[in-house]
Specification:
single chain; 173 residues; alpha+beta; two-stranded antiparallel ribbon; 2 helices; elongated; binds zinc ion
Length: 173
């Protein structure tokens, strides 16, 4: 998606809105395709005293997993983007500025990059998640695994199941 800004580049005060759905469903990161849900992008570019400022956000949901217990979870993705756009760079230090091409801004590039960088965060199923036992792999949210005492045979079976689940080969790779 390219946004044509030629009619506002030289008109201080003018602005142009944009809204579209970004499709990153084919993007693979760390062996997963994290952007399963449509990404709703909206915002505007405003000519502020001759400088073009883009303000927008990308909103979606992410299928991921808890960093502690590995349970699959879906979390909200809300990525704000604010950047300056220019036809050419006036000094070398301006790496915050996105260059226009023939008066158009490559919104796809700007918002794809922002969404991918936003994946860095850690996700927990709950702030209080107890995670997995380092020894037997049992989900400690479901109760103590009993590693330090005698291993409860029912929990040992559960631990085995969980272990099997998390070591299944990834179909995408
Ligand atoms: Zn968890
Ligand atoms: Zn244990």
């Amino acid at each position: 998606m390219r946004l044509d800004l030629r009619d506002i580049i030289h008109t201080p005060g003018a602005s142009r809105d944009f809204a579209w759905e970004l499709d990153l469903s084919q993007v693979t990161l760390y062996g997963e395709k994290p952007f399963d849900h449509p990404i709703h992008v909206s915002g505007s570019v405003r000519n502020m005293a001759g400088a073009l400022q883009l303000e927008g956000r990308a909103v979606s949901e992410l299928d991921t997993h808890c960093d502690r217990c590995l349970k699959p979870i879906t979390v909200a993705l809300d990525v704000p983007v604010v950047t300056l756009l220019a036809e050419e760079l006036e000094d070398e230090e301006s790496d915050e500025i996105v260059l226009l091409e023939n008066g158009t801004a490559d919104l796809e590039e700007i918002f794809s990059t922002a969404c991918i960088l936003a994946l860095d965060g850690k996700h927990l199923c709950a702030e209080t998640c107890k995670g997995l036992c380092g020894a037997c792999g049992a989900d400690l949210n479901e109760g103590p695994c009993g590693c330090k005492k005698e291993l409860d045979p029912r929990l040992a079976v559960l631990a085995k199941l969980l272990d099997k689940d998390s070591s299944e080969p990834d179909e995408e790779t």
